[in-house]
Amino acid sequence: MVSNVSQATLEQEVQTLRSYATEYSQQFELLSQQLRFIESARAESLASIEALVALADTNGEVSTLLGLGGGVSVRAIVADTRKMLVGIGAGVTVEKSTEEAISFLRDRITEMDASGKRLSESLGKLQNQMMAVEQRMQEIYASVQK
C-alpha cells in the first residue's frame, strides 16, 4: 500500500507527466505540419524544374495553359522561354535564365532536404520523449495498483 505522502508525490508526478505529454504532443503536431509543408514545397519545386526543362527544350513561343486558380485556366503564349522570373524570398522576384532558375530550385531542394532531415530527427527525439513519459506513467499506475 502506498503512503499518503508518497501518494501525493506520485499524483504530482503524474500531473507533471501529463503536462509534458500535452506539450510534447503539441510540439509533435507543429513539427509534423512543418515537415508536411517542406515536403509540399519540395514537390512543387520538382514540378517547376520539370516544367522549366520542358520549356528549355523549345525555341521561340510556346502555347500553354495558365492556371488562374479556382480550377480556371486560360490559354497563354510564353514569349521568351530563356528568361524566367524567380521568387527568391521576402517578396523579391528576379529575372534568371532558365538554367539559373533550375539551379536555384535544385539548391532550394537541397536546403529543404536538410531542413526535412533535421525536422525528422527532432520528431524522432520528441517521439522518444513521449514514449518515456508514457512508460513512466504506466510504471506509476502499476505501482499504485499493487
Helix coverage percent of residues?
Answer: 55-70%
The CATH architecture term is Orthogonal Bundle
Number of helices: 2
Along the chain, the helix and strand elements come as HEEEEH
Tell me what you see in this structure:
The chain has 146 residues and is α+β, with helices and mostly antiparallel strands. The protein is rod-shaped and about 85 Å long. Helix 1 packs antiparallel against helix 2. The protein has a two-stranded antiparallel ribbon with strand order 1-2. A two-stranded antiparallel ribbon has the order 3-4. It has a single domain, classed as Helix Hairpins (Orthogonal Bundle), CATH 1.10.287. The chain is built from two helices and four strands, in the order αββββα.
Quick rundown:
The protein has 2 helices and 4 strands, in the order αββββα. By secondary structure, the chain is of the alpha+beta class.
Secondary-structure topology with pairs:
Layout: H1 4-56, E1 62-69, E2 72-78, E3 83-89, E4 92-97, H2 98-145
Antiparallel strand pairs: 1-2, 3-4
Helix pairs in contact: 1-2
Give keywords.
19% strand, single chain, two-stranded antiparallel sheet, 4 strands, alpha+beta, 2 helices, Helix Hairpins
